[in-house]
Amino acid sequence: MGEMPSDPASARQGREPEERVDWLSLSPFLIHAMLIQFILSLTRVTTSYRVIELDLPLVWYGLISSGYALLPIFLAVPLGRYIDRGNDARAIWIGSGLLVAAGLGFCFVATAAVPILLLTVLSGIGHLFLMAGHQIYSVRCAGPIGREAVFGNYMVALAMGQMCGSLTISWLAQGLVVPPTSMLFILALLIAVVAFAVSFAIRPEVVSLSDFAPPPVSGVAEILRVPGLAVVLLASVVTVSAIDLLVAYLPLLAVERNITAGQVGILLTIRAVATMAARIFHSRTLRLLGRASATLVSMLAGALGFWILAAPVPVELMYAGMVMLGMGMGLAVTLCLSNVVDVAPVHARGMAMTLRLTGNRIGQFIVPFGAGVVASSTGAGGILFIIGLSVAASGLAVRTAYIRR
To answer: What CA–CA distances, in Å, run from 292 to 108, 381, 393?
Structure first.
């Protein structure tokens, strides 16, 4: 991994290397991140369509979305400590293998509600390992000088994966209301196998044992007392839950409004392209507006996009709403990630990142379950309207927290 600092122990205790982006380490990582997002964008939407195919009760949408977060809630803190000991690359290897296992299950046993729920849980665990490993590895690919560029490139890679998944769904749907789910699951499995192979190009950090000093162990309560961190983590929960619910409920909204699966694919593709465009200018936006204002503006834009989708508007106006949503939420998610790194202590970033993911998973567990109850009376549009309100409120909270620091 690039050029090591002359004193690795001191770097782990609080001083950071000053080198710019290590592109040799970053390049395979970006390819892997794109492939993983490609897989997830396929499987999450395809799972919703499989639930529709099986004609399951509406509450199963919420249960299956919640299942994605169930076990990861209990694994996140020990995983953070594992990663803080220099195991970010190994976490990526494990997560990639779990996605292959989940892909096999989706291809061969996802024919009833309970197997789909269990496979979604397995996929959620794999995703937890991958996201925690990815986020700390991305910090390792650059010192403070190049970190925002790394985050921007990482998020662009995720957006490219989302775009590939959305285009694939649109292409295979060919005017159908429900796409060929079996074919999509097989494709996701093949990509997962490729991603698993690529993951081994992501290498663990090489640190001399004679120089290595274990980082101090920080408790959860100690980390949460860091000024501003709790609010930043909450904003991350809201943004991730919002995007997760969009992916889960957009197919239902489309069925309610007689929108084809191909048009759903186009909507998601528009979101991915808008997200990618916004993330390309992440560093410039941050320099222009500052963290607090950039977070507020991006989350208000995302909220407006959700409100447009929630309204009973023509599909052409939904396209415009998805542009607004993609740009706003794409930038907001990137800022929430970099805000955690900005606020958290250097020696406990792995723990802070997994606390972020724990919060995300709690949100993904509780919010979809409640959303399923709300959707039974309001439909998918009501869910999207409530999401918009929560996103706008979180943006205001982050701005206030940064002003008070």
So the answer is: 47, 30, 13
Question: Tokens 């665990």 label which residue?
Answer: 125
Would you state the structure tokens that stand for residue 340, as one six-digit string?
Answer: 């955690």
Residue pair 253/384 in contact by the 8 Å Cβ criterion: yes
Classify residue 258 as left (phi > 0), alpha (psi -120 to 50) or beta: left
Q: What are phi and psi of 366, to 5 degrees?
A: -80, -45
CA distance 102 to 79: 20
What's the half-sphere exposure (Cβ side, CA atoms, 13 Å) at 177?
10
For every residue of 95-158, DSSP letters joined together read HHHHHHHHHHHHHHT-SSHHHHHHHHHHHHHHHHHHHHHHHHHHHHT--TTTHHHHHHHHHHHH
SS3 category, 200: coil
pLDDT digits (tens), the chain, 405 positions: 333 333 333 333 344 444 566 677 788 899 999 999 999 888 888 888 888 888 887 777 777 877 776 666 677 778 877 877 778 889 999 999 999 999 999 999 988 889 999 999 899 889 889 988 888 888 777 666 666 778 778 888 887 888 888 788 878 877 677 788 899 999 999 999 999 999 999 888 665 444 444 555 556 666 666 677 778 888 888 887 788 778 777 887 888 888 888 888 888 888 888 988 888 877 778 778 887 888 889 999 999 999 998 888 888 899 999 999 999 998 888 888 777 777 766 666 666 777 777 776 676 666 656 666 665 666 677 778 888 888 888 888 888 777 666
Q: The tokens of 302 are what?
A: 């995302």
Residue 74 backbone zone (phi > 0: left; psi -120 to 50: alpha; other: beta): alpha
Q: Which residues contact 294 (CB under 8 A, 6 or more apart)?
A: 285, 286, 288, 331, 335
d(CA 163, CA 37): 9
Cα 102 to Cα 19, 198, 250: the distances in Å are 38, 18, 23
Instruction: Give the CB-side neighbour count of residue 36, counting CA atoms within 13 A.
Output: 33
Q: Given its phi and psi angles, is residue 14 left (phi above 0), alpha (psi -120 to 50 degrees) or beta?
A: left
Neighbouring C-alpha atoms within 13 Å toward the C-beta of 356? 31
Neighbours of 197 (CB within 10 A): 13
| Burial of 258: CB neighbours in 10 Å, binned 0-12, 13-18, 19+ | exposed
